Amino acid sequence: MTQHKFFILISIAMGGALGAVMRYIVSGLAYKLISSAFPWGTLAVNLMGCFLLGFIWQIAQEIMISPYLKTFITIGLLGAFTTFSTYAIETVFLLQEAEFFLLSVNILISTLGGIAFAFSGLLTASFIINLIR
């Protein structure tokens, strides 16, 4: 592994650790402030992450920043804070490129597929647990 790749990986790992802690704090604060059955903490994290990724991405396009800082923030920090921001920005890029078919496929498969796979995971785990009991 080259020294450059090593430092990229370290940047991602450090950003990821900080992003995970930030997610815990922000989500917990939202749940504490708004007591409800609705997942406000997750929504707050996802929307903040989307805004921040779009903001940082545009800044990185306009001014030269270190590849280590860019990966620290975008992949590490915001990637651990919320992967929803990556989904959102990639969907925006498809929209900007007028890739309407791919845009639709991405939205449908990511949203409906994600829900279906989460439900499948729950059912599979329940099935396995019941087999073991």
Q: Can you tag this structure with a few keywords?
A:
133 residues; mainly alpha; 2 domains; 5 helices; globular
Please provide a written account of the structure.
The termini are far apart. The protein is 86% helix and 0% strand. With 133 residues, it is mainly α. It has 2 domains: 3-97, no CATH class; 100-133. The radius of gyration is 18 Å and the shape is globular. The protein has helices spanning 3-33, 40-62, 67-81, 84-96, 100-132.
Helices and strands, with pairings:
Blueprint: H1 3-33, H2 40-62, H3 67-81, H4 84-96, H5 100-132
Helix pairs in contact: 1-2, 1-3, 2-3, 2-4, 4-5
Helix content: over 70%
DSSP strand content? under 5%
Integer count of domains? 2
SS-based class:
mainly alpha
Instruction: Give the termini distance in whole angstroms.
Output: 46 Å
Number of helical runs?
5
Residue windows where pLDDT falls under 50 for at least 5 positions:
none
Number of strands: 0
Radius of gyration from CA coordinates: 18 Å
Shape: globular
